[in-house]
Design goal:
This protein is of the alpha/beta class. It has helices at about 75-85, 120-135, 155-165, 195-200, 215-230, 285-295, 330-335; strands at about 5-15, 20-25, 35-45, 45-55, 65-70, 90-95, 110-115, 140-145, 170-175, 190, 210-215, 235-240, 265-270, 275-280, 310-315, 320, 335-340, 340-345, 350. The strands form four sheets. The protein has a six-stranded antiparallel sheet, with helices on one face. A six-stranded parallel sheet has the order 10-9-8-7-11-12, with helices on both faces. The protein folds into three domains: about 5-95, Translation factors (Elongation Factor Tu (Ef-tu), domain 3, Beta Barrel); about 105-240, Nucleotide-binding domain of ferredoxin-NADP reductase (FNR) module (Rossmann fold, 3-Layer(aba) Sandwich), CATH 3.40.50.80; about 255-350, Ubiquitin-like (UB roll) (Roll). Strand 3 and strand 4 (about 45-55) form a beta hairpin. It is globular and about 70 Å long. It binds flavin-adenine dinucleotide (FAD) and FE2/S2 (inorganic) cluster. Flavin-adenine dinucleotide (FAD) binds near residues 51 and 119.
């Protein structure tokens, strides 16, 4: 199910003091949509960890493709990659995935507004590069928040793209801490975070398509502001890298829902790759973690309801889905579920990974 690729690190570039560009060359990846991510399976002290990283390159650059890893203070995998990865190393990688994607129908797209901060620029940069290559692409506005000029990821490339596309691209850099080195950046400059004042100043077109990626606060605040301005939900696309809100506790199945035996545990039947597995889920445990403990190979990455890789279809039974950002209420209503934040709420629950949904 989890088709792993073994990719060689072709080139490494230090983009900023805390951001590393990792380039792969892969004939096995023949396409991806700007906005999608790769999941790296990184082995540290004999243990494998999965972390997703958005692709920042343009599909036109295939078979070369790259991800950008930003150091997270105290972060296990990001620090390991920045400090220990070498050109020529091999990494297990899950193929491109994700629904945060720029509509490829460029000629019919309305103006595009990209809002991001920090490493949130990575999927937006891929979108930007692809769109500007297209002769009938719409006008693009990028609002990009960084702490200082030194920390602006893709600063030089954004300067170049603005020079090449003066009528089609506008970049607004928002520097929250220091203006030192600001002269190295082209475009408009704002001292401070991306806040509602900045949004009100620059986002006047309610008919644009909005793509948001960055810290939770920025993404949620921008989304709420846009909604309050009357922007239709289908025009707002967002990607979160992390969710800090605690997983909401699921109500325990009532004894009557677990056969007539108050001590019985709910049983999940899980279909994947044509095989059928059946296992009981302890109270307070999630379906994905229980399945992995049973040695069942399932697709997943973040385990916190943001990447969408553990998406499956609920065929029958009742299920609790905790805090998540990867599927919409209407998708849930039509049976989509995430097993990483999902718990059974009925004595029998059937979930199918093989049914498209
Ligand atoms: C779809 C997707 C795309 C992503 N794309 C990128 C990308 O292009 N570039 C990039 O650098 N990262 C990206 N990430 C984040 C990345 O997957 C890791 O979460 C990040 O590198 C931290 O991993 P770590 O092992 O260093 O930190 P961990 O050891 O997992 O975490 C350390 C501490 O920080 C908290 N934490 C974990 N992740 C974050 C976060 N992102 N923000 C704030 N706090 C956090 C944890 O709760 C923990 O307390 C993406 C994540 C997703 C889901
Ligand atoms: S593993 Fe990422 S949403 Fe479930």
């Amino acid at each position: 199910m989890t088709e792993k690729l073994s990719l060689v690190v072709h080139r490494l570039e230090r983009e900023t003091p805390d951001a590393l560009l990792i380039y792969f060359r892969s004939e096995e990846i023949s396409s991806f949509v700007p906005g999608q991510f790769l999941t790296l399976m990184v082995s540290i002290n004999g243990q494998s960890y999965r972390r997703s990283y958005s692709i920042f390159t343009d599909p036109a650059e295939l078979p070369t493709l790259g991800v950008c890893v930003k150091r997270l203070p105290g972060g296990l995998v990001s620090n390991h990659l920045l400090d220990n990865l070498h050109e020529g190393d091999r990494l297990d990688v899950l193929p491109p995935y994700g629904n945060f994607a720029l509509d490829p129908a460029m000629s019919t797209l309305p103006p595009v507004v990209l809002v991001g901060a920090g490493s949130g620029i990575t999927p937006l940069f891929s979108m930007l590069s692809m769109a500007l290559r297209h002769p009938s692409a719409p006008h693009i506005l990028l609002l990009y928040g960084s702490r200082s000029a030194e920390e602006v990821i893709f600063g030089k490339a954004l300067n170049r793209l603005q020079d090449e596309n003066p009528q089609r691209l506008q970049v607004v850099h928002c520097l929250s801490r220091s203006l030192h080195g600001q002269e190295s950046l082209k475009g408009l400059l704002h001292h401070g975070r991306i806040d509602t004042t900045v949004l009100a100043q620059h986002l006047s077109n309610r008919e644009a398509s909005f793509y948001l990626c960055g810290p939770e606060g920025l993404v949620h605040d921008t989304e709420h502001w846009l909604q309050a301005q009357g922007v239709a939900s289908h025009r707002i696309h967002k990607e979160l890298f992390f969710q800090s809100s605690p997983k909401v506790e699921a109500p325990s199945p009532t004894p009557s829902s677990v056969d007539d035996d108050p001590g019985a545990l709910p049983v999940v039947t899980l279909k994947v790759d044509g095989k059928v597995y059946e296992f009981a889920v302890e109270p307070g445990r999630y379906i994905l973690e229980t399945a992995l403990e049973q040695g069942i190979d399932l697709p997943y990455a973040c385990t916190m309801g943001v990447c969408g890789m553990c998406r499956a279809k609920k065929i029958s039974g009742e299920m609790f889905i905790g805090d998540q950002e990867a599927i919409s209420a209407s998708e849930i209503a039509s049976g989509a579920c995430l097993t990483c934040v999902g718990r059974p709420l009925s004595n029998r629950l059937v979930i199918d990974y093989d049914v498209p949904n």
